[in-house]
Amino acid sequence: MKALSIIIPFHDSRRELENYLPDIIGNLSGNLDTEIILVDSRHRPEIAVICEKNQILYVSTKRARRSVQMNHGARKASAPRLFFLHIDSIPPQYYDQLIVNAPGNSGCFQLAFNPPHWFLDSFAFFTRYKWVFARGGDQGLYIDRGVFDNIGGFKAEWSIMEDIDICRRLSATDGFHVLPQKLITSSRKYLKNGVYKLQFIFIVLTLMYWLGFSNGNIQKAYAKWVK
Fold first, then answer.
1. Residue 156: which H helix or E strand, with range?
2. φ/ψ (deg, to 5) at 220
3. Same domain, 143 and 216
4. Are residues 112 and 216 in the same domain?
């Protein structure tokens, strides 16, 4: 049995995969029997070839929705502990050992941005605290298989906020932990949309979630406001 299943939902270009994959693989300890599962939003032979060369299990879905892709990856996983990771988020060195040895039944890393920006760093500071408002998919999420199955996984009908929602459900128990190491995520979308503007948009979208707006309305707002 594998010690850890790393599940990466993917909807980006071949260039993005080749840019981030070396660090994701290179930061593994090499001491554990892990598997990486890349779940593409559609079948692309060129992406499958890259995965095969890197000994990554390539699967695909018919829907470009992270919740659907991550649930599908979980069904293909063989390890008792799952780790959901965005392709542009680089976990710390030897993250497989950190996750396998991590306490509780679920948790995440703290957050840092690359390239750094003082405004983003000020928000990232709060990811060290166990506040659901400070959670997000960019921090990665580890969760025991049994717990994932018991809570029903990600809400497949949701196209946004699926990461905050599952962390909200997990944080309701004492089993959720925030690890002290930092995961470095790309700030490319902030640079494209404007750092202050995009962070404000994300705050508004998160407030919409907490105020009970429908997922469809939150998605419409995201599509309207974010490039």
1. none
2. -65, -40
3. no
4. no
